[in-house]
Specification:
The protein is α/β, with parallel strands linked by helices. The protein has a single domain, classed as 3-Layer(aba) Sandwich (Collagenase (Catalytic Domain)). 48% of the residues lie in helices and 18% in strands. It has 6 helices and 5 strands. The chain has a 5-stranded mixed beta sheet with strand order 1-2-3-5-4, with helices on both faces. It is globular and about 50 Å long.
């Protein structure tokens, strides 16, 4: 899908608990996907990323995130969001669209965090999409200075989306 010159591919692959599945039926999934796409596009625009760029985002479940977390970070537990930057392009012809990388988000994990923080699932998914996109753009939060810069960027996009009541958290 292309919004303002950004190619954002969002896949939804879920095997959900029955209660959450009932909450996410039909057009609600489309609405959530649209909200996530809006958050990614807003982040790219706020960071002055010049189109054309592309990324993929997977909305999935805890088991899939736990598998990825173990495979790539050697942490055998689910998590909310993982980002996999594409890295520098190799030698050869320049691609017409710069690929930024991949983001994976667990919807059940996001749902639990949203309930704990007292905001909507959409707001939490947007926060996680913003967070993942910033990682693809080189942001990190391994020390206090990096975290301050990344959290400020997240807050700026959340405010632009009308989600200023959502505050980034870290386990």
């Amino acid at each position: 899908m292309s919004v303002t010159g950004f190619e954002i591919e969002i896949q939804v692959e879920l095997e959900l608990e029955q209660e959450l599945e009932q909450e996410l039926e039909g057009s609600i999934v489309d609405w959530l996907v649209g909200g996530v796409e809006t958050a990614v596009s807003a982040t790219l625009a706020q960071q002055a990323v010049t189109p054309p760029v592309a990324l993929s985002l997977l909305l999935t479940d805890d088991a899939a995130l736990q598998n990825l977390n173990y495979r790539f970070r050697q942490e055998n537990k689910p998590t909310d969001v993982l980002s996999f930057p594409a890295g520098d392009p190799g030698p050869g012809p320049v691609e017409p669209v710069r690929y930024l990388g991949d983001i994976a988000i667990s919807i059940p994990y996001a749902q639990r965090q949203a309930r704990q923080q007292g905001h909507s699932l959409l707001a939490e998914l947007q926060l996680l999409a913003i967070h993942g996109t910033l990682h693809l753009l080189g942001y990190d939060h391994t020390d206090a200075a990096e975290k301050k810069e990344m959290w400020a960027a997240q807050t700026a996009v959340l405010t632009q989306l009308g989600q200023q009541h959502v505050t980034p958290t870290e386990e």
